[in-house]
Amino acid sequence: MTWPGTTGVGAGRYAPSPTGDLHLGNLRTGLLAWLFARSTGRRFLLRFEDLDTGRVRPGVADRQRTDLASLGIDFDPPLLVQSERAAVYADALTELARGGLTYECYCTRREIAEAASAPHSEPGRYPGTCRELTEAERAERRRTGREPALRIRADRAEVTITDLLQGEVTGLVDDVVVRRNDGVAAYQLAVVVDDGATGVDQVVRGDDLLSSAVTQAWLARQLGLPVPTYAHVPLALNSEGRRLAKRDGAVTLADLAPLGWTADRVLGLLATSLNLAEPGEPVTTTALLHRFDPERLPCTPWIVRPAELVSPPK
Ligand code: GLU
């Protein structure tokens, strides 16, 4: 299952979904993932997470690559594109099923939301409706013509992961979907299979994904893959404290360029937000690598106010 030529040296990765141009928050997470990997002698890989085909926009993956390169973020092969890897995910699903670790789920989103609002339900967790269906009950649901998703049977396993920024994090594994009801592998499975196949042993990403880490670590173990070290980094937020988004103003390289923000200056801005440079100081990714010290990273979100970005510092 391992990619040829990738054993031995560990790897970090950046795994954007090609649904829109990268904004300052995405670029900052990509820079951090690169710094964590390169400062520890790891390979650094790019992976396009494009399984949510309805949200993928043509041309975006290429622009994301160009934007990362213009900041000085470089990648090693292989480049993975998840939509090309259905057969690999199918093998992993077969392995899980063989171990009795998956079950069919016929619930609609609405049914899950309704069950989740019942007394004693645990918010954010699958309520377990289809976990113990009998063969007759499954046959009855099949007759409605509804295609099932596949969920993992995690039995509320408790898992602890090590996070370089958050310390030890313990949580209960949720029965997440690993194959969607359109037959496509789900995010949770694809991430684990791809990280395992390319020797990724260091996962650096936004802290909105922290709660997925215990589930992904559990899945890795079930598939006989090593569990990576994690670093969940604080996100960039807008002035209202919500996750930064394109609608917040000029926050992508393409939007910022006409305001005088060259890629170098944006790199300086990101470096300043990470306590790695003074405002306006010219920097390169190589220079940042020498300065990088995870201990000095800010542990609170970066607040981005596009009104303050109307022109770069002189
Ligand atoms: N594709 C996910 C995103 O763009 C990242 C997944 C991950 O890093 O595990 O938010």
UniProtKB/TrEMBL annotation:
Pfam families: tRNA-synt_1c. It is an enzyme of class 6 (ligase). GO terms for biological process: glutamyl-tRNA aminoacylation; tRNA modification. Residues 13-252 form the Glutamyl/glutaminyl-tRNA synthetase class Ib catalytic domain. Keywords: Aminoacyl-tRNA synthetase, ATP-binding, Ligase, Metal-binding, Nucleotide-binding, Protein biosynthesis, Zinc. Binds 1 zinc ion per subunit. The keyword Flavoprotein does not apply. NCBIfam families: PRK05710.1-3, PRK05710.1-4, queuosine_YadB. This is Glutamyl-Q tRNA(Asp) synthetase.
